[in-house]
Specification:
alpha/beta; two-stranded parallel ribbon; single chain; 10 strands; Rossmann fold; six-stranded parallel sheet; 10 helices; disordered N terminus; 38% helix; 296 residues
């Protein structure tokens, strides 16, 4: 457990749940750099599905804001174990939100582009990406479980933020970009889906904007992602180009790479709301990717 040198008896500014994941690790990295008091709990330290455990930690740490980075993220496996997905991403979020509301603690919770259908009609209607106020209509269990968590958060009346991210990538943990770079060193060519469109969220940008939104005391649903649109094939190709790797990247269709869970063909998140707020940092996906690939 990380106490940032302040110990349990001193009230913490932030309590990070799911601190072992790539977003949780980025939060801890940023808070350490800024010298902000925080407590970091991995899923092994604190199981968010156990409401009594959550309540005990809230009463012990007394944070101003809880940041929930804990989630069930196995998109394909969720199709065969929906109960677990809904427990972690839905019911546990509702209990956490209620516990925070009862104690007047703010809550930052992360959701996903997978709450949207990604249909051809939506792609034509929302060329700039899905806006925050569009009703979720997920096509898979994972997305449905995250949408359930959003609903329970809102119904709890807790003060805080639901922040949707997409195609999350960062310096910590595992993600698509790191996997592509590893496979490029092991295979003569890469075959990557080229008919799913979106724009990635980079963890350092997500944390920076999350901190800023929280500092302003804002609430509601916000999208934090990059500008521009790409595909998984485009993202992989650009990553290899930046790193100077010559492994060919062959475009394939979703049908060429069947998976248990359906993926939205279009999951671009509009960041217009974020762009219109002075002081936020919004950037093209290529800029975020280039920075990620140079981070230690």
């Amino acid at each position: 457990m990380e106490t940032a040198g302040f110990g349990y008896l001193c009230a913490m500014r932030y309590l990070i749940l799911g601190a072992g994941g790539q977003l949780g690790q980025e939060w801890c990295h940023r808070l350490r750099e800024d010298g902000i008091p925080h407590q970091a709990l991995s899923s092994a330290d604190c199981d968010i599905t156990k409401s009594e455990e959550i309540a005990d930690f809230l009463d012990l740490v007394k944070p101003d804001t809880v940041v929930n980075c804990a989630a069930y993220t196995k998109v394909d496996k969720a199709e065969s174990e929906p109960e677990r997905a809904f427990l972690v991403n839905g019911m546990a979020v509702g209990r956490l939100a209620k516990a925070c509301a009862d104690r007047k603690i703010r809550l930052i919770h992360y959701s996903t582009d997978y709450v949207f259908t990604g249909s051809r009609e939506d792609a034509a209607r929302f060329r700039d990406g899905y806006p925050e106020d569009h009703d979720p209509a997920p096509i898979g269990t994972y997305g449905a479980s995250k949408a359930d968590g959003e609903r329970r958060f809102i119904e709890s009346g807790v003060d805080g933020l639901i922040i949707r991210v997409a195609w999350l990538c960062g310096r910590h943990g595992t993600n698509f970009v790191k996997t592509m770079l590893r496979l490029a060193g092991e295979r003569p060519e890469l075959r990557v889906v080229a008919d799913q469109r979106g724009s990635p969220s980079f963890t350092d940008n997500v944390v920076a904007n999350s901190l800023y939104l929280d500092s302003l005391g804002l609430s509601g649903i916000w999208h934090v992602a990059s500008t521009g649109v790409t595909t998984w094939h485009g993202l992989a190709s650009e990553a290899l180009r930046v790193k100077g790797i010559a492994t060919p990247v062959i475009p394939i269709t979703t049908a060429d790479f069947p998976t248990p869970a359906l993926r939205p063909a279009f999951s671009k998140l509009s960041v217009r709301k974020l762009e219109e707020l002075p002081g936020t940092r919004v950037e093209d996906w290529r800029v975020g990717l280039a920075r990620m690939l140079t981070q230690p």
